[in-house]
Design brief:
It contains five helices and 16 strands. It is α+β, with helices and mostly antiparallel strands.
Amino acid sequence: MENEQAGQEREEKALAAQRISGPLRHGVARLILGCWLAVVASAAMVFGAGAQQEQTAPAAGLARTDTASGASVQADDLDIQEIIRRFAAKEKEFQTARENYTYRQIVKVQELSPDGEVRGTYHMEEDIMFTQDGKRFEKVVYAPLSTLRAISISPEDERDLRSVQPFVLTTDDLHKYDVKYMGRQNVDELSTYVFMVSPKRMEKGERYFQGQIWVDDRDLQIVKTYGKAVPDIRKKGQENLFPRFETYREQIDGKYWFPTWTGADDTLHFSSGAQRIRMIVRYEDYKQFRSTVTVTYGDEVPPEESQPEPSVPQQPE
């Protein structure tokens, strides 16, 4: 989000920028059983240490329980880097699949007073579509006049809405990031691997994600992200700061996990003062668009005429 005062000159030059981006084994039971139980107590302490080692084993051995069969599924001691490679390949598959889906993106950004009162709102609804060769384009379906006063939507915000908030970490982009394994964690009913992701270096003019991702250990796809778009921009009187956000995915087609909701409630610390913002992005009405189908508009004529198929007589009712 861009500070309104710092971004005023940018807005005057390009009005298009108005659019969019039980603990410790029940306390060890205190083991107050008398001196004659010292040997037993020592054995219990050894057992407790062994149990503690066993407790950390699933993270190292990457074991999980298959909820479908109830059987314990071992990851065959796969190296963490192999898991990263495999989920990045799955993410590449998902990215390709998503380019064959149209959907509606609803963005609402609000600037708030310190006590949470809404002082201004930006609202944009767009249908996201793709051309036959996979190029994205957007059709605005609802865009009331923005009432934001302290901030404005910058071109970087628009880019983040496309690529950072619905973050996808594919094999094509894996070399740009350091990916560190953090452990295992359940997200609702899903068992996931947790990774910390940060850009190795930031190229000028590029946008990156920095934060955590949760990868389903069964489908090997990202199901949740938490972090922010980087870098923040502070130069030559220009301040463009970006909130921390959280994105959730849902399984739409029975195979891939699609982003459906992004939320942020953060305070941006401009040099002119702090500004709290709230942002909600919803991705709705996913519909598969088959690239083998030719779509024409208006009086557009297809380049080639196909041979008419023989008519089939209708059966009498």
